[in-house]
């Protein structure tokens, strides 16, 4: 059965449209199961009826004409129960309904399986036989497996618009929605431009050659060609990116180096293999090695190697000259977006990015955030090769993409885009104004930074300090651990840029979905594994070098604060404090006179919530990492599209934990801040202010909106709203309650699109 299934799937994937795919399925399933009838009914969303769309065995003239409501017939029963139905004699069942036009009265036994995609029933797959019999478990399982495959095919058909009016009305192209992972916030409306890989390495055959020098010369030309392309793209992006982000292209050039990929390929050519075959061999080896690794960041390296391999192959195949056409409002779509693809789009034309593979941690997502381009990653259901040229909407707030959007939806999102543009212009006026509520409460607003590009953006938005500087970013875009001297230069730049305002530097926080290519961490469950402070305490040499670099960088500026991530108990804190004091002693011994900076602990593990008092006694401040705390409290990996909708920082459990942290920190006389997406949501910021947080830290993009909101809402009104919200046990109701309160105050126009959906 498995081979049969595989063959059917391959045949279906090669079908030119949905009608052909359904025809293949009913024919092949009928043959495979030796039944007399196989039919597919699809749910027409406009009429909410199951329509017969393909059949082998019933009267073909009834296709498109026979339909039934979910409360009618056996097909409707399978659809509403969302589980298979296996009947020895269908006519005996009370829900049996006879359609004369189908000619099905001759068939007794019935087996139907629902076709479900993302929890939504899209149709029913049915087999029937003349003789009375119960279908066995194997047949049942085969049909269920087949219907799961069919769900993907139908989703693809929805995306490409090949489902045209299932009902008799024939309403034209269907709008479809796909859910992935948010890569970079914002909304975009435009035209999809699919960037297929320039050449397919997988189909390159082996070939023996005799003229080895000539083949090496061919390969050298290809190497030089790709090197020049890389340099050109890097140069093109130089105006948009800071040196730190541009270093990504240096990584590519290093890979092409004679000492790296280049020499390995030449060695294989020397064995008598032609250049294309040698290239395939080396690249496939590297890719396989990377793809076997568990952590996300290393897997992203596989896509870099694959991208380079394809580009080299294109040169070898002389196919690289084909020019791409980029319309205005280009939304770039690819199976695996890479940094170089961004540089190939003419400046001013790129409005959104969509990648089938990858997570919010991939290089492209990091660059997209730096450049402010709305991005959705991990869109695994999107039939990317078939969407070129169609209209598309990218919602980077929710990680959603709409293909063939209706005029209504397009207008709604176009309004969001325009509103965002006007907002950012209108909010610029707030830059110099402090964040003070109408009843005089002062709320400091800080920013989260990582890339050097963030500095300028933060200052333009009027940030009062840095609540979280992610030190792992310089480590991530390096090919080795940066030296003390290199780190000192990076940290000094950050501290000097914000001086005299405070800069909170988090010690190296790797593991989970953040890994270093040169320091692989291979684990089955990385989020519960070796990450944050656990790594640096096990490697004090890394921690001490970093601590020394931070302390030296603060000389004469004295605006440094150090933050320790992933602390789950007092023992880890004591060890870390010991190392920090040791580093401080070493720096002073070397003649650098710096005071000991304030030390803080991140509250992002549930255990730390319950030890807030004990931790607060040993440090100068506390900072809640709302992203991880939410993830751990709700046991939801927010990079996983299957459960991402369960991730909600307005969940009652999260709100209760936050309240407890502030209360316990203040009981020990220590300030508590919060950094994470929650702080950047204007609606959530009202609750955080009411809880008593001493500062909020967020992405620079959100800062003006939060400032505007808090300048409109008095602290007393915020406390009333918090008291109301804390009595509610459902996150959706909490969200609606806040939105209603803001509506009554006339403040909804400033709501973050991430909190209110525009439809």
Features:
single chain, about 750 residues, alpha/beta, Beta-Lactamase, Glucose Oxidase, domain 1, Enzyme I, Chain A, domain 2, eight-stranded mixed beta sheet, eight-stranded parallel beta barrel, 26 helices, about 45% helix, globular, disordered C terminus
List the helices and strands and how they pair.
Blueprint: H1 2-13, H2 18-33, E1 37-44, E2 49-56, E3 67-68, H3 73-81, E4 85-87, E5 109-117, E6 120-129, H4 137-160, E7 176-179, E8 181-184, E9 187-194, H5 212-237, H6 243-255, H7 261-269, H8 275-291, H9 296-316, E10 330-334, H10 339-344, E11 350-355, H11 363-371, E12 375-377, E13 391-395, E14 400-403, H12 407-427, E15 445-449, H13 453-460, E16 466-470, H14 472-476, H15 484-498, E17 503-506, H16 533-538, H17 540-553, E18 560-564, H18 570-589, E19 599-603, H19 606-609, H20 612-616, E20 621-625, H21 626-634, H22 652-667, E21 672-675, H23 682-691, E22 695-698, H24 703-710, H25 715-725, H26 731-744
Parallel strand pairs: 9-10, 10-11, 11-12, 15-16, 15-22, 16-17, 17-18, 18-19, 19-20, 20-21, 21-22
Antiparallel strand pairs: 1-2, 1-6, 2-3, 4-5, 5-6, 7-14, 8-12, 9-13, 13-14
Helix pairs in contact: 1-2, 1-4, 2-4, 5-6, 5-9, 7-8, 8-9, 15-17, 17-18, 23-24, 23-25
């Amino acid at each position: 059965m498995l081979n049969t299934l595989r063959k059917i799937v391959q045949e279906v994937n090669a079908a030119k449209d949905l009608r052909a795919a359904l025809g293949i399925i009913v024919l092949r399933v009928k043959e495979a199961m030796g039944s007399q009838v196989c039919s597919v009914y699809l749910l027409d969303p406009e009429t909410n009826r199951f329509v017969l769309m393909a059949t082998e065995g019933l009267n073909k003239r009834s296709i498109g004409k026979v339909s039934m409501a979910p409360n009618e017939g056996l097909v409707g029963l399978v659809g509403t129960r969302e589980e298979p139905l296996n009947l020895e004699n269908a006519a005996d069942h009370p829900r049996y309904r006879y359609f004369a036009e189908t000619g099905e009265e001759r068939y007794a036994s019935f087996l139907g399986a629902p076709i479900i995609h993302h929890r939504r029933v899209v149709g029913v797959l049915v087999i029937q036989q003349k003789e009375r019999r119960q279908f066995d478990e194997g047949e049942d399982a085969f049909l269920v497996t087949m219907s799961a495959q069919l769900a993907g095919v139908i989703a693809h058909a929805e995306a490409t618009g090949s489902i045209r009016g299932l009902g008799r009305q024939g309403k034209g192209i269907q709008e479809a929605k796909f859910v992935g992972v948010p890569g970079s916030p914002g909304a975009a409306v435009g035209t999809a431009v699919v960037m297929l890989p320039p050449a397919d390495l997988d189909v390159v055959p082996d070939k023996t050659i005799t003229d080895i020098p000539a083949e090496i010369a061919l390969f050298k030309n290809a190497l030089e060609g790709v090197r020049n392309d890389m340099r050109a793209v890097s140069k093109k992006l130089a105006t948009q990116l800071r040196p730190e982000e541009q270093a990504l292209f240096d990584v590519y050039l290093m890979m092409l180096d004679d000492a790296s990929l280049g020499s390995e390929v030449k060695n294989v050519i020397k064995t008598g293999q032609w250049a294309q075959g040698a290239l395939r061999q080396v690249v496939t080896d590297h890719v396989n090695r990377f793809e076997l690794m568990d952590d996300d960041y290393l897997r992203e390296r596989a896509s870099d190697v694959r991208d380079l391999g394809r580009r080299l192959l294109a040169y070898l195949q002389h196919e690289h000259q084909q020019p791409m056409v980029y319309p205005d409002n280009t939304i770039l779509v690819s199976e695996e977006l890479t940094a170089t693809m961004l540089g190939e789009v003419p400046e001013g034309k790129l409005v959104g990015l969509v990648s089938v593979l990858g997570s919010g941690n991939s290089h492209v997502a990091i660059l997209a955030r730096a450049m402010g381009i709305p991005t959705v990653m991990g869109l695994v259901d999107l039939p990317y090769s078939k969407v070129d040229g169609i209209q598309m909407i990218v919602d980077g707030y929710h990680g959603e993409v709409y293909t063939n959007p209706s005029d209504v939806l397009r207008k709604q999102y176009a309004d969001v885009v325009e509103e965002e543009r006007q907002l950012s212009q209108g909010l610029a006026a707030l830059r110099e104004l402090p964040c003070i509520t109408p009843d005089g409460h002062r709320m400091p607003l800080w920013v989260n930074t990582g890339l050097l590009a963030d500095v300028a953006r933060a200052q333009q938005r009027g940030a009062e300090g840095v609540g979280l500087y992610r030190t792992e970013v310089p480590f991530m875009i390096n090919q080795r651990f940066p030296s003390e001297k290199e780190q000192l230069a990076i940290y000094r730049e950050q501290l000097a840029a914000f001086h005299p305002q405070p800069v909170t530097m988090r010690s190296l926080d790797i593991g989970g979905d953040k890994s270093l290519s040169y320091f692989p961490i291979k684990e089955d469950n990385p989020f519960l594994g070796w990450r944050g402070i656990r790594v640096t305490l096990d490697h004090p040499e890394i921690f001490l070098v970093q601590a020394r670099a931070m302390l030296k960088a603060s000389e004469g500026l004295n605006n440094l604060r150090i933050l320790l991530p992933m602390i789950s108990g007092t023992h880890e804190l004591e060890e870390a404090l010991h190392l920090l004091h040791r580093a401080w002693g070493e720096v002073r011994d070397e003649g650098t006179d710096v005071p000991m900076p304030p030390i803080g602990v991140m509250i992002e593990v549930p255990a730390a919530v319950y030890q807030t008092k004990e931790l607060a006694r040993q440090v100068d401040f506390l900072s809640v990492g709302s992203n991880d705390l939410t993830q751990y409290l709700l046991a939801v990996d927010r990079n996983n599209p299957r459960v991402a909708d369960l991730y909600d920082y307005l969940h009652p459990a999260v709100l209760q934990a936050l309240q407890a942290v502030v209360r316990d920190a203040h009981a020990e006389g220590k300030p508590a801040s919060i950094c994470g997406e929650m702080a950047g949501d204007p609606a959530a910021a009202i609750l955080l202010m009411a809880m008593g947080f001493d500062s909020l830290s967020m992405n620079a993009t959100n800062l003006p909106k939060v400032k505007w909101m808090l300048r409109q809402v008095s602290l007393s009104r915020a406390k009333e709203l918090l008291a109301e919200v804390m009595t509610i046990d459902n996150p959706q109701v909490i969200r609606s309650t806040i939105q209603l309160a803001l509506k009554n105050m006339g403040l909804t126009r400033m709501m973050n699109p991430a909190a209110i959906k525009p439809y």
